[in-house]
Amino acid sequence: MDSDAASSTPLTVEVLPTKKDIEHARSQLISSLPEKGIGLEQIEKHMRNDLVPGFNKPNKSPNFYGFVTGGTTPASLLGDHIAVENDQNVQVFLPKETIAIEVEDRALNMVCDLLNLSSDDWPHRTFTTGATASNIVGLACGREFVLKASVAEHGLREAMRIAGVEQFQVLTTVPHSTLRKAASIVGLGRACVRDVGLAEAPHRFDTEALRSALSSSKVASIVAISCAEVNTGLFATNGEEMKQIRQLCDQYGAWLHVDAAFGLLARVLPHTEEYAALVEGVEGLELADSITGDAHKLLNVPYDCGIFLSRHLALGTNVFQNTNAAYLSVAAGAEELQRIVPSPLNIGLENSRRFRALPVYATLAAYGREGYRDMMQRQIGLARAIASFIASSPFYELLPDDHSIDRTYIIVLFRAKDDEANATLVQRVNDTRRVYLSGTQWNGRPAARFAIATWQVQIERDLAVIKEILQEVVQRQ
Ligand SMILES: *Cc1c(COP(=O)(O)O)cnc(C)c1O
Prior knowledge:
Number of helices: 16
Strand content: 5-15%
CATH superfamily of the largest domain: Type I PLP-dependent aspartate aminotransferase-like (Major domain)
Largest sheet: 7 strands, mixed
Strand order of the largest sheet: 1-7-6-5-4-2-3
CATH class of the largest domain: Alpha Beta
Number of domains: 3
Bound molecules: pyridoxal-5'-phosphate
């Protein structure tokens, strides 16, 4: 995945469309269903000439640092085109009719391999629409596990009555917003998500508070680890703490879920001094019951693609089974293969699903472990170079206050020292249309955030643009 060799992806210097492009696109939108269609040729012209200029450019510019968006590697893009051209619906294991599900199985094996997880330990593995969906699946499995009666069978209220449980809690630190969303969807409720972080380091667990919450009687618990927190990129645990939390979960019958949407890829880093703080942050991932990952973030495949891994296939199948539809049962021929691949419709949310495995298969096979390791090193290298620049700047301040460069992953949180300049900082950077940042809040004040997530990173080239823009916006205010 040599970003120099990216000639197939012409780079632009602009990350955002102009106001005029957006207004033009808006004015040209087809306003209602035509009685007689405009035809293929016209619709292509319309999409390419009117709509595309009105899109933002996370994949066309290397300087899109909003959210954690990623890009699409050339191999994943090709995989996506081929998936769509062939309109594969990957839902039932039909080994005599299509190889698609075995491709998905191989892609998931390669994902496990990339993360140094043994695929035998993670038999419930599937591609989802994203980390939100994976968190929903994770909490649904956790909910099933922690009661001594089946929610899948009896429903939440009856299962709680049988189990003698009065309350649920999801214990976590600085969770991603989608954890609360997932808790809402699976019927636990947003209010059951409880933060048990340390006052002085909110992303880390207060182990005593965790133990005390877990020991409450008549309460069923899921522990959710924020494996790289979205504002700071900091990891909630190290290997020792993961061991300790695993023990607590075993002792109190809790489910251990890890939201590693973008933290996951720290597992490919070399175990050297330079990356020690990050490697430590993903140590003990193998102790979880379930893991959320995003492929459309750091794996750099097209939207949408998330990863879900769990150790508990029978439990997952109990929650998600769709076996009443006789016409969807496993077709003949499965027995001829060495191994039966679970039908995705019995282990995940959807029935029909797109072939989102093919881009993952393509990109992992094309670039291998080395390609991804190199990409991560370039991303972290750029993030650390930006963090150093900000830390030494008279105008800007690196956040959190005690942040050190060797803990910088792919996120750089900062603000302008001057409050007035800080209030409009993100807007002024984005108005240049050459660099795009996300705004956030830190300690009740506005803050800005770089998320370095594209495979196209070239440290020197990109740093030069960033320095220029950051200098320009403070001088121009
Ligand atoms: C992005 C993110 C999510 C949500 O992921 P989607 O793919 O947008 O659904 C959840 N958790 C974390 C930590 C994230 O970074």
